[in-house]
Amino acid sequence: MEIFFLSLLFFSGICLVHTYWFYPKLLRWLADRQPSTPPGPPETMPFVSVLMAVYNEEKVIARKIDTLLRLNYPADQIRIFIGSDHSSDGTNDILETYQQRDPRIRFHAFSERNGKPGIINRLYEEAIRFEPASKDHLLLITDANVMLEPDCLYSLARHFQDPEIAIVDAHMQHVGLQAEGISRSEDQYLSGEVQLKHHEGKLWGTMIGPFGGCYTLRSDYFSPVPSNFLVDDFYIAMRVFERGGRAINDLEAVCVEAVSHEWREEYRRKARISTGNYQNLVTFRHLWWPPFRPLSFAFLSHKVLRWLGPFFLILFFAASLALWLLFDNYYYSWLFLCVIVFYFALPILDILLRRGGIQWRFIRNIRYFFLMNLALLTGFFRFIKGVNNNVWEPPKRQQLPS
Predict the structure, then answer these.
(1) Where would you find the membrane-spanning parts of this chain (predicted)?
(2) Under CATH, which number does the domain 47-262 receive?
(3) Is the peptide bond preceding residue 290 cis, with omega within 30 degrees of 0?
(4) Quick one: pLDDT at residue 297?
(5) Is the pTM here over 0.70, yes or no?
(6) What are the residue ranges of helices labelled H in 303-392?
(7) Can you give the residue ranges of every domain in the chain?
């Protein structure tokens, strides 16, 4: 029995260490030893259809459209398709004004909620009526709160000279960070994700899912997202891999997003995304096992083990508790004490220190880690219960610096 609980303890611990520490370190070590040559300027720039679903984005939509219109990209090679998912604020009025001002903008105000994937599916159908789907017709799928730097689209589009490239993801950077709240922990985690995805793409062309806020895709690789799916970007990327396409990340294609400060808002957003993660885990289970191919190894290491993280945490706690209760061993007592401190004492200490105005990054990150895993656990139970629709409420938008 002691061997059983020790095995459980080591298995769950190794899985957590692998997905959060060993795998990122391994890929960084491998990528640093692989030379890379950035693509040269293309002879002609491919045509780009921008697809953007919006819902109640009056605070950011004008600035977003301005960044799209000011891109350093041939104006006659861009058309912008925007769908408003039955917005109830001033979003539609702002977009109507822009549509009248610039003929490249095609705006549709939907009279009922469709959800982001539903809007993107319908915008894609309209886009290919203007420009047929082909390897030379790109889609830029982006969110209203993500602002593109002027050279972002050019940096993304240049990679499609390689016929095997199907997706190129942008480099998401975060602004408006504050010492209090969750923003610095969120930025640290997402910055690590950017680097990890870049290394996956550099090594094997297996970047495991773009950041949905800004990425490009060959239009002939687009796959309509099912009506009840919550995470459209990951679904689209996995369908690309099924067809043999490659996905990479370009660190020079910069876009910016104001990161959230509020714990409750971020938990709500992550729980929704987590529900969609489990949808994709089941749908694409044939791509992560057996883990002998680069794609399978990356998918298993980067996503599957991380999505199963709450269960590994529960197993680790249960195994350490059982060892402490059932066996008279000094080391098991110290192990369980350390588990109690890590699982409960440090997150509670962060809450108490925060009320006193003290910000300690180390314990803030531990609390953030458990928030992520709690959101994953919540998403799992929502997935088990069943997802009937994919309509969404955007989190409170933080104002970007001018």
Answers:
(1) 6-23, 307-327, 333-353, 365-384
(2) 3.90.550.10
(3) yes
(4) 97
(5) yes
(6) 305-307, 309-326, 330-340, 346-355, 361-385
(7) 47-262
